[in-house]
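Data availability (excerpt). All sequences and predicted token strings are deposited with the supplementary files. A representative entry, 8-oxo-dGTP diphosphatase, is shown inline so that the format can be inspected without opening the archive.
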Amino acid sequence: MLMVEVVCAIIVNEKNQYLACQRASHQSNAGTWEFPGGKIDDGESQQVALEREIAEELDCDMAIFRPLQPVTHSYPHIKIRLWPYYCRQLASQPQALEHAQLKWLEIEQLSGLDWSAADAKIVEEVLQDGGLTPVKTEPLS
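Structure token line:
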């Protein structure tokens, strides 16, 4: 099975809430929740792909901070390697352009959603890691 490289954003707002996006009814794994992102195109860096995907899916801007561990998962129709990054929301509010709905959640609420299988592994790491606490480092982009 072909491996598809995918990137996702764990977006945190000024209230330290995390953005969860529900997959639309016409998408695979419809109704499950995910961190927004998508496929890395040929020749794109992970950061460029992440900025493009977030602009396309949510029409918002963000600062990219540190990466988490990549997750490899095989779905019945595809195998993906998911590269997650902590991100901070900037001025614009995310819009549900491709998702059924968006939710801002406190870190302890993340485990209460029905996450897609690959994203569920990221939720576990975020909870173990303690999330994106106020950072003293510069964003990656």
